Amino acid sequence: MTASRTSIPMKSKSKLQNAVVYLRVSSKDQEREGYSIPAQRKLLNDYALLNGFHVLQEFEDVETAKDTGRTHFGEMIDFMKTQTAPCRVILAEKTDRLYRNLRDWVTIDDLKLDVHLVKENEIISPDSRSSAKFMHGIRVLMAKNFIDNLSEEVKKGMLQKAREGYWPSYAPVGYMNGKSESGKKVIVPDPERAPIITMLFEAYSRGDLSLTALTKLARKLGLTHKNSGNPLARSAIHSMLQNRIYYGDFEWDGVVYTGKHEPLISRLLWQKVQDALGTRLGKNTKLVKHEFAFSGLLSCGHCGCSMVGEIKKGKYIYYHCTGFRGKCGEPYTHESTLDEQFGKLLQCLEFDAEVLEHMRENIRELGKDKNEQQKRVLDRLRDESDSIMKKLDSMYDDKLGGVISLEMFQDRAKKYRRRLDEITAEIEEHEGTDVSDFEETIELMELVRNAHSMYLRRSGSEKRRLVQNVLSNCSWKGGVLFAEFRQPYSIIADTNSTYRRRKVAGEPRESLFQMWYARQDSNL
User: Fold this and answer.
1) Residue 210 exposure: Cα atoms within 13 Å on the Cβ side
2) Strands, E, within 205-315: which ranges?
3) Is the dihedral of CA 126, 130, 136, 137 positive or negative?
4) How crowded is residue 20: how many other Cβ atoms within 10 Å of its Cβ?
5) Lateral strand order in the sheet of 114-117
6) How far apart are the first and last CA of the chain?
7) 209 three-state secondary structure
């Protein structure tokens, strides 16, 4: 369902269509290496020139896109909302350069813009066919999946480091990040702050100082945060006194590990401090707050207030309207009722196994066609390059033999070498174009298809995260759950609904499968 790029004839300057260019690299290192942003800029500006676009402004981000809120991405969105000149086009290199999370896609989709993804030869607009929008949504899901996988790998690495006895994150106050003799990243005592930490533990262990008094002492001794230089607040001092890392152990992801770093205090001193804390604050007095699975996800359909959880008779969980806008007639609802209805909504994403198999065959064929098309382009460019090199060799022989003059040789050679430079750039561009791993698309579709079964196996907090990722604008009214699917889940749910309706009506299988197929579309 990818779209072939449509070349637009060159227009006069007065008729050029306005556009903005978005550039992004995913790390400061890439920016310093100096190749990614310039390559994107040249590609997109050449595309604009070829296809009749006048670039009003460029927006450039050099940071991760895991979270929304990228500085210049936000500025671009504001620009598209408020600028006076008519501009409804964004030019970007490819999907994961423009947005790598679902919220960014929804933001751009809501603005009804035309998005040109140059390296993917795709144009997505409000008038694009549903098939193109569907596959575009899958690519956004793939980009998000890449970020999630990257995050998982980072977490695995940090966990492995913790198991080896090394603190895997930024050094806490009193320590500095450094390297061991073997080159391993470790934490080492901060020569300025470590002695102060030791003095504070010793002072509090005597039992005659309050946390407020200890905080004042820390300020008097000059204890500050390393980066900001600000004094530590009372809450930070409290957390510091409870941190095992100062006697040699540390806690990571709920597990205590024996550290290999140099301790600042003894285990005995740390235990004395814990006893002092328990005496002053009162042991076992902290109330455990229950984590309700659906609190914060729902609003009341009658008045718009939030629906919150409450435990009845010590074990039954009910949800009710907060009533902040006055008494509300919505009755209490048992958590199991909400759980069941959320599950039914996720069933809308559960499509037939035979649909998945037909999509697998079709998408693999599309991937094969794309690979072959790219190979043909590269073969043509290399053949042209070889032909030019032969002409240069022949011209050189003609020059040596006096058949052509030196001036004629230099003039023609200059033109040939200019074309060789263009061919080299085109080859590099095509070789650098990622041919999508279409198997990943199938894996993601299978994951979405199993959303309901995954939901049934999850705990309360995990169900909450799944619902937050898939649904939005959830409300409860009169015993009925109302919600909207986020993009691209809404496309899958709508397609599946149409598929089921037409299947019941007895429509032929091949016709039914057409709505799911990934097909080439050059009319976008």
Assistant:
1) 3
2) 249-252, 255-258, 298-300, 307-312
3) positive
4) 22
5) 53-62, 17-25, 89-92, 114-117, 122-124
6) 11
7) coil
Which amino acid makes up residue 218? A
Contact 179, 252 (CB under 8 A): no
Shortest CA distance to 42 belongs to which of 420, 376, 422, 417? 422
**Structure tokens belonging to residue 304:** 């718009």
Q: Is the dihedral of CA 500, 335, 487, 306 positive or negative?
A: positive
* Omega prior to 195 cis, within 30 of 0: no
Give the C-alpha distances (Å, rounded to integers) separating 119 from 113, 286, 306: 18, 57, 45
* 436-476: pLDDT as tens digits: 556 667 777 888 888 888 888 888 878 888 888 888 889 99
Between strands 307-312 and 298-300, the pairing is: unpaired
Residue 186 near residue 167 (C-beta atoms within 8 A): yes
Element (H or E) spanning 358, and its range?
helix 353-400
pLDDT for 265 equals 92
Q: Report yes or no: 442 and 356 within 8 Å, Cβ to Cβ.
A: yes
Sign of the Cα torsion 343, 348, 353, 357 reads: negative
| Residue 9 DSSP code | P
Helix (H) or strand (E) holding 58: strand 53-62
Number of H helices, E strands in the chain: 18, 15
| Spatial distance between the Cα atoms of 84 and 274, rounded to a whole number of angstroms | 63
Report helix, strand or coil for 55.
strand
Strand segments, DSSP code E, in 63-174 are 89-92, 114-117, 122-124
The vertex-340 CA angle with 339 and 342, nearest 5°, equals 65
Q: Find, among 456, 458, 488, 484, the residue nearest to 471 by Cα.
A: 484
Instruction: Give yes or no for a contact between 386 and 427, defined as CB atoms under 8 angstroms apart.
Output: no
What are 332-370's pLDDT values in tens digits? 999 999 999 999 999 999 888 888 888 777 777 777 777
The answer, yes or no, to whether residue 520 has pLDDT greater than 50, is no
Average pLDDT estimate for 69-86: 78
* Cβ atoms of residues 200 and 214 within 8 Å: yes
Residue type, 430: H
Both tokens assigned to 365: 């064929």
The one-letter amino acid code at 33 reads: E
The residue among 101, 97, 105 whose CA lies nearest residue 147 is: 101
CB–CB of 443/360 below 8 Å? Answer: no
Nearest in space to 206 (alpha carbons), one of 300, 280, 112, 145: 280
Distance separating alpha carbons of residues 11 and 16, to the nearest angstrom: 6
Q: Which two tokens stand for residue 390?
A: 């032969």
